[in-house]
Amino acid sequence: MKVAVFSTKSYDRAFLQEANARHNHQLEFFQARLDAQTAPLAAGYPGVCVFVNDLLDRPALEQLAQGGTRLVALRCAGFNNVDLPAAEELGVVVVRVPAYSPHAVAEHTVGLILSLNRKIHRAYQRVRDGNFSLQGLMGFDLVGKTAGVVGTGKIGAVVARILHGFGCRLLGFDPHPNPECRKLGLEYVPLEELLARSDIITLHCPLTPQTYHLINRDALQLLKPGAMLINTSRGAVIDTPAVIQALKSGHLGSLGLDVYEEEGDVFFQDLSDQVIQDDVLARLLTFPNVIVTGHQAFFTREALQAIAETTLGNITQFEQTGRCTNQVRAQEVVKPAQGG
Length: 340
Ligand code: NAI
Description:
Blueprint lengths: L1 E4 L4 H11 L5 E4 L17 E4 L7 H9 L4 E4 L9 H6 L3 E3 L6 H17 L1 H9 L17 E5 L3 H12 L3 E5 L5 H5 L3 E2 L2 H7 L2 E4 L13 H6 L4 E5 L8 H10 L2 E6 L21 H6 L5 E3 L8 H21 L19
Parallel strand pairs: 1-2, 1-3, 3-4, 4-5, 6-7, 6-9, 7-8, 9-10, 10-11, 11-12
The structure holds 1,4-dihydronicotinamide adenine dinucleotide.
1,4-dihydronicotinamide adenine dinucleotide binds next to helix 4 and helix 6.
């Protein structure tokens, strides 16, 4: 199939081209993000391939449909950036990569926990500057601490398993409890209780209308003073200005983010010679007890290989049969279990 691949970086190209040796699609790579303005670039392409910050709202989808596009292949798990009812109305099939490497995201999550706790990000800078003082670098033992996992699906379950290995007590909140997590001794409790009892809270639920700003001012007030919050799911699951207030008051002890509500204008680009225009993000970056990574939790060799293979396999299946096992349908948006 002739496919316009949007938001491509050199690594996307490399992994997709390698996998395409087995699929033989005609891939055309565009650096641009897909939105209503750039959608005309896809005119004449029956397939488009997109990533997390491409914006497939109704106007963009209308442009695509007018240009003859019938398939949107997401090369990611989450589909919160696609207006699925509009796609269905326009006869555009949307497919995704439901799972590639939950380990990649889970291991990065634990990396954020360890770095924040032991202040490795600060120690790295300090030692390079010839400052070997330990003042301000004290952390805590993870063993015996309580970790609350919000969303115990594929990624949350791996995080739970790793933290179990550290000797943490595990709490979970998920409308669909996972028997694997229960086997680890994870105790399912209401969200309010999880927030109140956890030393570390880590978010692994999809972004849905139910999880939008799940961590807001009220939720933050329930936290133990000094608790750590980690978000590697989707930025809008937390209300960032509310989190900044909680950091300023000292109630929230530390914050690790791999995702940010307004990341679309910033992440995946080198803006190092520019002034950051987003004041909320700029404020976040001033805190010594905050680590922000630019949506890199998925970014391992194994994950990129799996993403490329599944994405091209989805396109092949659609081309050959007109359907795809990994199709996302509009009604899945309201089913909380179908995030990703
Ligand atoms: P999954 O679908 O296996 O698990 C999600 C879990 O969240 C399910 O068990 C579901 O029941 C639960 N859930 C749904 N609504 C909830 C709610 N209101 N409260 C609590 N739990 C709820 O998805 P997976 O693969 O574990 O991915 C989780 C999220 O991680 C994705 O939705 C995506 O947004 C994010 N992600 C981030 C990446 C990154 O690079 N930072 C890469 C891949 C995924």
